[in-house]
Structure prediction request, 449 residues.
Amino acid sequence: MLSLPNEIADVLAPFRGVFAQQRSWQKAQTMLVGAILCQGHRTVSRVLQVMGLGQTQQYGKYYRMLSRVGWSGLAAAQTLLSLIMLAFVGTETVVIGIDETLERRWGHRIWGLGIYRDGVKSSRTHTVKSSGVRWQVMQVLVRLPWSPRVWALPFFSLMVPSEATPRGKRAYRSSLDWAIVMVRVVSRWLKRYWVCVGDGGYGNAKFGWACRRHGVALVARLPWKANLYEFAPTMPPRYPGRPRTKGVRLPSMQHHLERLSVESGPFHILPWYGGHHALRQLVTGTAVWDVDGYPPLPLRWVLVIDPTGVHPPTALFSTSLLLSPPQIVELYVARWSLEVTFEEARAHLGVQSQRQWSKAATTRTTPVLFALFSLVCLIANRLHAFTPLVPHTTAWYAKPEITFSDLLWAVRTALWRARVVPRLAPSPDPALSLEAEREQLIQLLAASF
Prediction:
């Protein structure tokens, strides 16, 4: 049986109910711990080697954990969300960011594969397309006790299959359709008010109305040419005809921008990208957004202007009229933590290094690797309660604050200590001499996993 420190065992214990059998749960723990200890590619063979199971004859049962064994990814996502809420959110307002990322993969047998625009390699003037699988990921935006910046903790990931993927008689669902499904599921889990933060791809009336129907406030980028109107005027009780849904047309964002070049406006010092504060001019108002095919969407719009002219003006909106303009800007700026998490998961957790191609294995492996980011943060929070975490620095590299690599180093240290210290103790079995134990330890640590 796998021996784990209490801080790690307590975090993994709530996931026991996700698996129907105890044997499957033991294998899942082994693979999770192996994925944390492993470096480089996160394949099943590397995980088995780092856990000392390289010579096991029944290695196929570990492969079947991803392709055949029945366990619920939705139940695991709900459990992970509850752990994040309990550890970092509490009674505060829940802020969840949503974004899509491309997992670069090659191979015609990979289920859900397509050719997409690569946001990391592309720019405003140059578009690069890559082969891969698209993922829609929801992450809780929180402040951790050891860091001044906002962290994004993934808990719910869904694959967005390409349009060419066989789907039987089911209609094709775009990434926006899957985002609406995720909002509905998370609202059912939380059963409370929460804020959803997205980029320009989620700034439309369809997604805005989906959030309003489930009691969610949406904060996203507003299209520059959005048709904004005043709220419908109140008509007499016996006014003939249908009631009006909108009022007078409001000036465009460009008109507000040109007017501000002559008139001065209110300035605010707001949290900005890079962890520092910046002076920004804010113009705001309430309106309804008229889009063909949908009822007018009530919103508060905010025009963010850089007085120095270094950054271009940005238009944001919120479907909640109660959020103040500085709050809307702060929530949208915190969305950048999602991109940081995606990069950290690729660099330290082996995302897009796996080799599965079947539908079940492909749709399970990447969400588990994203969830490892949150699990490492939860375990590090337990470790931090006993021994405060510090940045892992060297003589030639001074690190001002703790990063994810420091958390991963602390968790790996706890795991290796639990595995190594018992081996250094004197063994009652004379066949296992200290020299044999030492050689086994050297072989374990020398292997490049």
